[in-house]
Amino acid sequence: MSSDRELKKLEWRTKFAQASENKDNCRLVKCILKKPPSDRSKRDLEILKELEVLVSQVEERARKQAKAKTKLDEVLDPEEILEDKVCQLVGAIREAKTLAIYTGAGISTAARIPDYRGPNGIWTRLAKGERLGSYNLCDAEPTLSHMSITKLYQEGLVRHVVSQNCDGLHIRSGLPSQALSEVHGNMFTEVCTECEDDRIYYRLFDVTERTAVRRHQTGRFCTDCGSPLRDTIVHFGEKGCLEQPLNWQAAFDVAKIADCILCLGSSLKVLKRYHALWGMNRVKHRRPKLFIVNLQWTPKDESASLKIHARCDNVMKRVMEKLGLEIPEYKRHVKVTAD
């Protein structure tokens, strides 16, 4: 028994020593590679030769890190290129029989709501250890893009909108709930799941102040049956089960027949996982044309018919002008269901 314990200790010490040596060698290789080739000594070259495998690993890791960093860069198309791309997008909207629009945080940045992965996004700033401060989303108003989408729907040019945002701005813009799938919930709605068809309450305030992951009761009660109300937010790791406002069925139904999908301000890193939204179960030549408006790289760029590097409001303003449609003015009036 004692010999077995000693053997395990020896194995652990050996592994620890190897790990320490590899770490030191890795630092040494990185230090040498930072030098210009002309400044490397004979001993440096000997070390790189001796540690050839490690050198390859370090260089490959550096290439991957550089590639990942470029994906975070924001790119703006030059004016002449942007104009040409917008014309192509307008042509696609006119020709589409069934157009679906998918929206992400980038559509709401003009309303002073921070996005997630941009240079000043929530996750980017958290990764840098910065404080986020406070944002009063109750005062946020629909952007030019929100109002444009509502007008396009009213004109019959858009069939359905799938949004990852919880800010409630699509509803405030006048887009009817049946034309909208808020797949991550809405922080201004709470629901009674005991009432038939899930009775929904739209609020002027954030209903999530007392809620959290797997703890969704808001502390208020249904005026009809008296049951506890719950928020509609879908947190990471949770599976959204509410019929409304998530409205997944409508999202899947439109994806089956859509011949064109326009993605506005979404990184698509979450939406890409929902294969049913992209017509992937259809024959390849019958899959919908994909148009993406985003400043950063998305995992769907290679599949897109067109990628526009621009801000959503800038693109949608041009689109509406070329379609000859007036963008409605937002008027702040909301009918509130009493507590």
Strand arrangement within the widest β-sheet reads 3-2-1-8-9-10
How many domains, as an integer? 3
Mean pLDDT: 85
Coarse morphology: globular
Instruction: Provide the CATH top-level class of the largest domain.
Output: Alpha Beta
The helix-strand sequence is: HHHHEHHEHEEEEEHEEEH
CATH topology of the largest domain: Rossmann fold
Q: Considering DSSP H and I runs of 4 or more, what fraction of the residues is helical?
A: 25-40%
Family: Belongs to the sirtuin family. Class IV subfamily.
GO molecular function, one term: metal ion binding
Pfam families: SIR2
EC number: 2.3.1.286
Provide an overview of this structure.
The chain is α/β, with parallel strands linked by helices. It has 3 domains: 2-71, no CATH class; 79-183 and 247-323, TPP-binding domain (Rossmann fold, 3-Layer(aba) Sandwich); 188-239, no CATH class. Helix content is 36%, strand content 12%. The strands form 2 sheets. A 6-stranded parallel β-sheet has the order 3-2-1-8-9-10, with helices on both faces. The protein has a 4-stranded antiparallel β-sheet with strand order 5-4-7-6, with no helix packed on it. The longest helix has 33 residues, at 2-34.
